[in-house]
Design brief:
37% helix, binds iron/sulfur cluster, mainly alpha
Length: 90
């Protein structure tokens, strides 16, 4: 507890980038229909790859990993998630 989260840069190397093709389509609009996040104004709603990247960099998980009542607290920490698992809620 009380740890200061550090953003962890994720570097995509050339061989990884080469596996992505122009045919890949962002599914933002269809993803957004299922996004359970209640944080207002976030531009990452529906852009799951950016959402996961953003939260993992702060030792957190996205909103959709939490039950509604916990999601609303905006505590998305690994510790909160682990506590939910340990208590059997997840
Ligand atoms: S979980 Fe975080 S990054 Fe994802 S949509 Fe909600 S506020 Fe934005």
């Amino acid at each position: 507890m009380g740890r200061i989260a550090a953003r962890v840069p994720i570097v995509i190397d050339a061989s990884t980038a080469a596996r992505y093709t122009p045919a890949m389509q962002c599914k933002k609009s269809s993803n957004a229909r299922f996004c359970s996040c209640t944080y207002p104004g976030c531009e990452k709603h529906g852009i799951c790859c950016e959402c996961v990247h953003y939260h993992l960099g702060m030792r957190q998980l996205p909103a959709c990993c939490f039950p509604k009542d916990v999601e609303r607290t905006y505590d998305r920490s690994f510790e909160r998630f682990a506590g939910l698992v340990a208590s059997g809620r997840i």
